[in-house]
Amino acid sequence: MAMQGSSRFAVESGDVSSKFDDDGKKKRTGTLMTATAHIITAVIGSGVLSLSWAFAQLGWIAGIITILTFSLITMFTSVLLTDGYRSPDPITGRRNYNYIEVVKNNLGGIKYKFCGVAQYSNLVGICIGYTITAAISMAAVKRSNCFHKNGHEAGCHTSNSSYMIILGVIEIILSQISNFHDLSGLSYIAAVMSFTYALIGIGLSIAKIAEGTYGRTSITGATIGVDVATSSQKVWNSLQAIGNIAFAYSYSTVLIAIQDTLKSSPPENVVMKKAGIIGVSITSVFYVLCGALGYSAFGNRAPGNFLTGFGFYEPYWLVDIANICIVVHLVGAYQVFSQPVYQLVEDWCKSRWPESGFIAKEHQIVIPFVGIYNVNYFRCIWRTVFVIFTTVIAMLFPVFNSVLGLLGASSFWPLTVYFPIEMHISQAKIRSFSLNWFWLKMLSWACFIITVVAVVASIQGIITDVSHYQPFKSVS
User: Fold this and answer.
1) Cα–Cα distance measured from residue 16 to residue 365, given in angstroms and rounded to the nearest whole number
2) Is residue 309's pLDDT more than 70?
3) Looking at the domain assignment, is residue 195 inside a domain?
4) Which of 60, 144, 162, 349 is the most interior residue, by most CB within 10 Å?
């Protein structure tokens, strides 16, 4: 409370230049570089690992067109969304600190409630998906060494559940990072890791192609009766592949939180637009390379995860490095996506019980060689419970492609397309049934249709995949 009082005094007296921003909060120091690093960390995630499989389902033409289409749509709607950080004016207006607040102050009503459900269920789902993927990569390191020692025909199966528990413990510790502003260092490390494993995957694909052991590819992807049993399976897999590609571009949920780390000058929306274009462009190049080269290497039988599906066995140590990088990256990305969930619950509880020492009071402890760290009892318990919850759900549904497809498809239309477009129409006061209004609405409806069919396909895939698993006993 004392800190808040000093913040208000600094703003009221005009002393905001040295320590505080115009809203009385600690001065933001984010730049184009830090924002771009956050975006790359958020975008290049486990989705990149499934792109060669997605290409195998869609084929050369549809695969490339789908990635480029999602890239352009994401880039366009991200630019629209950045103007919602301040309202009503995108440069001088009042700050909105998260995605749901942007929707509340620009659209309000039932749309605001719908956004809350869509955003936070998606954030929780992403944390579950990242736990699944990171555990599979940890298991892949052990399997890689086993294959190297015992031969490629050895079973080398290992439980994923134990690795999920290890990841949960790590995430519990990291979850005590108090807010998004303190994640820049973690994002830099995670961004480097994402580049590293993507480059290793590209390099291994090129090496496999150069050896002449590449797979059979085609314009239309997997062949009915050869690679897939029936035409219905071909359709389901193709729609699920679209969901996987959509997941690869899911970062709109944390865009406003990233923008809230930026310095006020130059204007946040100007810097964030540049960061979004740079970040999405860089990741799109990697996505096309990973998808196309992975498909060339494996053909229509590409594994669901091209670094853990063991299309690559040697050099085993390089496969190990790639999977370790995946784990480090997803551990950091988990924190990026979970912070808005943490803040939502903590801010609500503080407003509901402002006098509660358990919820609001910070306790200072001295950590040797680190300095003073503020501990809040409620934050410790709540964040620990959240990590345990996501870990348990991941252990119950440990399937990769279907979960990624469901998460990507279900979030793409509402969060990446619908709300940014609706807020832009409202802010720009675009007249109904004008040409601009018409084509923006057509874009939104087209993405809605894609979302619906991809969601249905992913649910069908989850039902099929889970039928082969026993809860808490999944193996890689």
Assistant:
1) 29
2) no
3) yes
4) 144
Q: If we measure between CA atoms, which residue out of 128, 106, 8, 13 comes closest to residue 397?
A: 128
User: Does residue 23 sit within a domain?
Assistant: no
Separation CA 280–CA 78 (nearest Å): 10
Can you tell me the distance from the alpha carbon of 255 to that of 84, in angstroms, rounded to the nearest whole number?
11
CB 309 within 8 A of CB 303: yes
351 is written with which tokens? Answer: 């407003």
- Residue 85's contacts (CB-CB under 8 Å, 6 or more residues apart) are 95, 96, 102, 256, 259, 260, 268, 269, 272
For residue 367 the two structure tokens come to: 């950590």
d(CA 414, CA 285): 25
Residue 340 located in a structural domain: yes
Which tokens sit at 74? 């994401």
The residue written with tokens 């090496």 in the block is 207
pLDDT digits (tens, 9 = 90+) for 317-337: 888 998 999 899 888 888 888
Closest CA to 54 of 435, 408, 452: 408
68-113, pLDDT tens digit by residue?
Answer: 999 999 999 999 999 989 988 888 888 988 888 899 888 878 888 8
Number of structural domains found in the chain: 1
Other beta carbons less than 10 A from residue 146's beta carbon: 16
Domain membership of residue 13 (yes or no) is no
The answer for 90, left when phi > 0, alpha when psi is -120 to 50, beta otherwise, is alpha
Q: What pLDDT does 434 receive?
A: 93
Asked if pLDDT for residue 359 goes beyond 60, the answer is yes
Alpha-carbon gap, residue 378 to 360, rounded angstroms: 8
As given in the structure block, the two tokens for residue 381 are: 């318990």
For the record, the structure tokens of 387 come out as: 């990590």
Strands (E), 301-435: 363-367, 371-375
Report which DSSP code applies to 371.
E
Its domain, for residue 174, covers 30-400+430-466
Sorting pLDDT into bands at 50, 70 and 90, what band is 13? very low
Ranges of H-type helices in 13-108: 32-43, 51-82, 99-106
Would you list the DSSP string of 394-423? HHH---SHHHHHHHHHHHIIIIIIIHHHHH
* Count of residues making up the chain: 476
In the structure encoding, which two tokens stand for residue 448, read together? 């809605």
Q: Which tens digits make up the pLDDT trace of 423-449?
A: 999 888 899 989 999 999 999 999 999
Cis peptide before 88 (omega within 30 of 0): yes
Tokens of 168: 């949960």
CATH number for position 124: 1.20.1740.10
